[in-house]
Write a structure and sequence with these properties.
This protein has 426 residues and is an alpha/beta fold. It contains 14 helices and 13 strands. α1 links the parallel β1 and β2.
């Protein structure tokens, strides 16, 4: 049984500690990490009252950072009247407890901050289950050395979801809850897979929107499908996947899906927990990688998205790079040159609709190359090919004769050879 927390009307006062290591040469510099963490805090309804960069030779076992930095942060938090300190690096359970003891304020890490945003933004039962699974999997290895009282009853950032319960939770009960959530999500995944198969049977290609959080995916989704999905300038506005049919200029119908945005160093267990939602990406015939071209760090954002796509094993899928928010640029000429670095790319404004027809034309051209119409005669005992035609393509006609079957179907080019190999002379 969960207890509802009445959030304070005053914004929670947050102090940010950005940790970096001298030996590393990260693409994301500390300043970029700080700016993004500030946006995450705003998305959580908090107020950043101070920050500090901590450059280390190596992490310490007890506190992650050295004793001197701990004292500096403690003093800065006292002056800023901070309620919470958030570290950019993941904290072990012992490090978190030691820091809280010495800093005298609640201490969490970036992963907990992201999980908190997800907990607030999840609306569907599926989304809520996925967030709870991610939170519990984060909590489980951090229970060593904790007393039976695991709940944080004070509320605040990093406490939404399982952290609000008054029940004493131990490792066994958390493990059991994780098992149940995984089973429930597996059932949901099966149901979603059935829906996708039905769309396939109708011959509808699936196009999935992917991109860094706040790149404008939902705005683009609304513009091209005339939908009214919630959009706003903020991180992780969309968590629950949404699909709508779309009629392309060549009169072809497709299914367009919007899903959760990505971020650099996205916690692995968060990706694992959201695999039910991200299956839409894995089943897609085409990916639209939406990029906020107005953001000064857009190149690193592109790489961060590609890293997640690699983890999902979908880099072999055709991708259109959609350079969005050109309405925010004073000089657009350099974007035209940027397109030359990508096989398929368009630049547009999802908000104003500028250059949107170019995207729809590009989608039509790519999909037409992905599917081929074949008309073959196959042996009467090859009912497996009939099933394959229904599963993977758009069946135009099937005629049965005494010793053969005439199949006319539009199928992906990569499986057309299966039919052609079994074909008999007319």
């Amino acid at each position: 049984m969960k207890t509802t927390i009445n959030l304070k009307q005053e914004k929670e006062r947050i102090f940010l500690a950005v940790v970096s290591f001298k030996r590393e040469r990260p693409e994301w510099v500390p300043k970029d990490i700080l700016e993004e963490m500030e946006s995450l805090v705003v998305a959580c309804g908090g107020q950043v009252v101070g920050s500090m960069f901590c450059v280390l030779d190596k992490p310490t076992a007890s506190h992650l950072i050295g004793k001197g930095k701990v004292e500096e942060i403690a003093s800065a938090c006292q002056l800023a009247h901070a309620d919470t300190v958030i570290f950019s690096e993941d904290l072990k359970g012992s490090q978190q407890r030691n820091l809280e003891d010495d800093l005298k304020v609640r201490t969490i890490d970036r992963t907990q901050l992201i999980l908190d945003i997800f907990a607030h933004r999840a609306k569907s039962n599926e989304g809520k289950m996925q967030v709870e699974l991610a939170q519990l999997e984060y909590l489980l290895p951090r229970l060593v050395g904790k007393r039976t009282e695991l709940s944080r009853l004070g509320g605040g950032i990093g406490t939404s979801g399982p952290g609000e319960t008054k029940l004493e939770i131990d490792r066994r009960r958390i493990a059991e809850k994780i098992t149940r959530l995984k089973a429930d999500l597996k059932t949901l995944a099966t149901n979603q897979d059935t829906k996708r198969k039905k769309r396939k049977e109708k011959g509808l290609p699936i196009i999935s929107l992917v991109g860094y959080t706040n790149a404008g995916k939902s705005t683009l989704f609304n513009t091209v499908t005339q939908s009214e999905q919630e959009t706003k300038d903020g991180l992780f506005t969309t968590l629950d996947s949404l699909s709508r049919q779309l009629l392309l200029p060549n009169r072809q119908r497709v299914v367009l899906s919007d899903t959760v945005g990505f971020m650099h160093d996205l916690p692995h267990h968060l990706i694992e927990a959201f695999k039910t939602t991200l299956q839409e990406v894995q089943q897609a015939d085409l990916l639209l990688h939406v990029i906020d071209i107005s953001h000064p760090n857009f190149r690193n954002m592109i790489q961060a998205v590609m890293t997640v796509l690699d983890e999902l094993n979908v880099l072999d899928k055709p991708v259109i790079h959609v350079f969005n928010k050109i309405d925010l640029l004073e000089d657009k000429e350099w974007v035209k040159n940027l397109k030359d670095n990508y096989e398929h790319a368009v630049y547009l404004s999802a908000k104003t609709g500028e250059n949107l027809p170019s995207l729809l034309t590009e989608i039509s051209q790519i999909l037409s190359a992905l599917f081929v119409e074949i008309d073959v005669l196959v042996p009467i005992n090859r009912m497996d090919l009939v099933s394959l035609a229904h599963q993977e393509g758009e069946v135009l006609s099937i005629k049965y004769y005494s010793d053969k079957i005439n199949i006319r179907v539009a199928v992906p080019t990569n499986i057309a050879g299966v039919f052609l190999k079994a074909a008999q002379p007319a």
